[in-house]
Hints:
Helices cover about 45% and strands about 10% of the residues. By secondary structure, it is mainly α.
Amino acid sequence: MSEVRVRFAPSPTGSPHIGNMRNAVFDWLFARHSGGRFILRIEDTDRTRLVPGAVEEIMRDLRWLRLEWDEGPEVGGLCGPYFQSERVELYQSYARQLAEEGKAYYCYCSPERLAEMRKEQEARRESIGYDRRCRDLTPDEAERLKGESETGVVRFRMPLSGTTTFKDVVRGEISFDNALQDDFVILKSDGFPTYHFASVVDDHDMLISHVIRSEEWVSSTPKHIRLYEALGWEPPLFVHPPLIVGPDRTKLSKRHGAVAFSSYIEEGYLPETILNFLALLGWSAGEDRDLYSIDELIEKFTLEGIIDHPAVFDTAKLQWMNGQYIRACDPDRLVELTLPYLQRAGLMAESPSPDELRYAREVIRLMQERMAVLSDAPKLCDFFFVDQPEYDPKATDKWLSKPQAADLLNKVADSFESAPEWNIESIENAVRAAGAELGLEGGQVIHPVRVGVTGRTVGPGLFETIEVQGRERSVARLRTAARIAAREAAG
Ligand code: GLU
């Protein structure tokens, strides 16, 4: 088999979404699995839909996911340029060639005429398509219309009968009735090519072996097959992975929550989670298993594993998976990843002192078992970073209104002050001893103390929490809570 060369060919018309990035993951895994090359090509020929900053965002998202491209913008390569807008002359020369060979033709119909035609087709409930007025003009007619027209496009001369068939790697053989195909535009009046034409020219010119792209392009493939034939080129293999759908089985959209890829970065999913998760959206190694390292994915990824039915986007599974990767994360890296969330929430200074950093590190390590996404961190651990936690009224009602609560909290504070050492064991001993003096044990001790030092009823292990908070902070909180408890008991 000749070298595997695959391309990810986004249009910079907005933010990449989950579906685009899933395709990029498939491209990249297939290239790495086969020792081939992964090419990034920017399809920016629809000048009216360009969004400033979109190219940068695409590249940033790919790099965040660690999908380094072997050829493309900023990297270069032998088949460049990799922006279609810089390749316009190439498309124009092939369009001219096809027109000269009678395989394409100039069309001078005005936008007004085409709109009128469309309206009439709609009224007659006919299928919408170009009525081919300019397909078979005599040279004289062509000359006259050209003179009258302000615009002109080049259209492809589709066969009027027969079928066009191709073999999709995922779906097998698919046939299309030529009579239902349009004489589609290949070169627009602004001189830029359409997607269909540019992508065929480039996939050929860039020696692409496999075109991996969304299912929505299946119906365009007969156009592409005919273009390859007209240009005398061997088509690449076509691979259309399945659509990604929401739990209600409709195409994934904003209704299902976030679809912009960047929102998953912002929420605090790890790149290894997203890579693993996207790889499984429409592909399977045929095992009953969900967690794969990058190396395992590369080793196992084959096109045969691509599934031909819709892939359901399961947010609960994504969160579970992220929790797994957070637990497995190197603690120093986790700290680095989580700090910005604490800073944005105003819990940490922009440039923290070494002491503040040390403290944050210990807090984040405590949270490692509890976070599903990094953006959980502020609400899980805000009480560590404030002078006094906010006391949840439900928690104080339940645990600080008991007659002995104030006594207990003061006693625990006393034993903390006099504890010879500050470690989990000495903290636990101090808490239990204070409880025992009042004849309390188990939950009667643990819950009020937890509420006293954190303001809430749930959190990481109590003694670890107290150890990390430190002696001074814990004592101060217990004294405040004891005052609240005394008030509750009196009121
Ligand atoms: N520019 C097209 C898109 O963003 C690429 C389709 C293809 O891969 O051929 O959907």
